[in-house]
């Protein structure tokens, strides 16, 4: 998860987030090179007293500074489109979970099970135990099996919400009356934190998301216990 004074992204926990990190580095390097070139040109133009008639009127330079930006845009657009299609790809999910946003908590329904669902509320600060994170911990976590394709159906019960987990590369709007879907695969076990990313009222900051990825055997044990309690 994120830590104080962190400048970069959180560590990737899914293949899509790894691709997003690589694309970020790729685009940042292009921006850095362009900024360096522009800064050099500005400094050179300000400091030199010499002029060159071939620079003032040159068809070759105009062709270069027209084609070069077009090529740079293509270098950025192609990997961007590839990642967009990867993020929309949903192939044979092993588990489908419906996440519904409310003011101000999330409810989860495991649609592959007959009666497995629960509400997830933020744990108040005074009830936190040592090691838990303020404004991020919930009383019920969304538990999923690791290295399995998971489909999440996202909707809302009242106003606009947004189901977002940065380390998984997931952000999907929850719209009342509409069912949006997204998918992800966790590449390692762990606990991944997110928050509602759409301003949804007075307690918008107090509806966190906690995704816990566990081995398949542990997930089966957890689901059996939850069904027994239900």
Counting DSSP E segments of at least 2 residues, the number of strands comes to: 10
**The CATH topology of the largest domain:** Immunoglobulin-like
Compute the number of helices.
4
CATH superfamily of the largest domain: Cupredoxins -  blue copper proteins
How many discrete structural domains? 2
Q: Return the structural class.
A: alpha+beta
**Unreliable parts:** none
Helix content: 25-40%
Main sheet properties: 5 strands, mixed
| Radius of gyration using CA atoms only | 24 Å
Q: Record the strand order, biggest sheet.
A: 3-2-1-5-8
Q: Which sequence of SSEs, written as H and E, runs from N to C?
A: HHHEEEEEEEEEEH
Strand content: 25-35%
Taken from the alpha-carbon principal axes, the silhouette is elongated
**CA-CA gap between termini:** 32 Å
Task: Identify the CATH architecture of the largest domain.
Answer: Sandwich
Highest-level CATH class of the largest domain: Mainly Beta
Calculate the mean pLDDT score and round it: 91
Domain Cytochrome oxidase subunit II transmembrane region profile: 1-91
Cofactor: Cu cation
InterPro entries: CcO_II, CcO_II-like_C, CcO_II_C, Copper_CuA, Cupredoxin, Cyt_c_oxidase_su2, Cyt_c_oxidase_su2_TM_dom, Cyt_c_oxidase_su2_TM_sf
Membrane topology: Multi-pass membrane protein
Can you put this structure into words, describing what you see?
The protein is an alpha+beta fold. It has four helices and ten strands. The strands form two sheets. Strands 3-2-1-5-8 form a five-stranded mixed sheet, with no helix packed on it. A five-stranded mixed sheet has the order 4-10-9-6-7. The mean pLDDT is 91.
């Amino acid at each position: 998860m994120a830590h104080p004074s962190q400048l970069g992204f959180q560590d990737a926990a899914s293949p899509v987030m790894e691709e997003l990190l690589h694309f970020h580095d790729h685009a940042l390097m292009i921006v850095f090179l362009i900024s360096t070139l522009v800064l050099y040109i500005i400094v050179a133009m300000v400091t030199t007293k010499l002029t060159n008639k071939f620079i003032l009127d040159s068809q070759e330079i105009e062709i270069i500074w027209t084609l070069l930006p077009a090529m740079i845009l293509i270098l950025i657009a192609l990997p961007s489109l590839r990642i967009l299609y990867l993020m929309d790809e949903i192939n044979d999910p092993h588990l489908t979970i419906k996440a519904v946003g409310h003011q101000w908590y999330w409810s989860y329904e495991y649609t592959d099970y007959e009666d497995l669902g629960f509400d997830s509320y933020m744990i108040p600060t005074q009830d936190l135990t040592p090691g838990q994170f303020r404004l991020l911990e919930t009383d019920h976590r969304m538990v999923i099996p690791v290295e399995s394709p998971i489909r999440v159906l996202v909707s809302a019960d009242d106003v606009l919400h947004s189901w977002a987990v940065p380390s998984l590369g997931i952000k999907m709007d929850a719209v009342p009356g509409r069912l949006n879907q997204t998918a992800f695969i966790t590449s390692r076990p762990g606990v991944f934190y997110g928050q509602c990313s759409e301003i949804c009222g007075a307690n918008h900051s107090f509806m966190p998301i906690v995704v816990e990825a566990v081995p398949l055997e542990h997930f089966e044990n957890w689901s059996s216990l939850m069904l027994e309690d239900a």
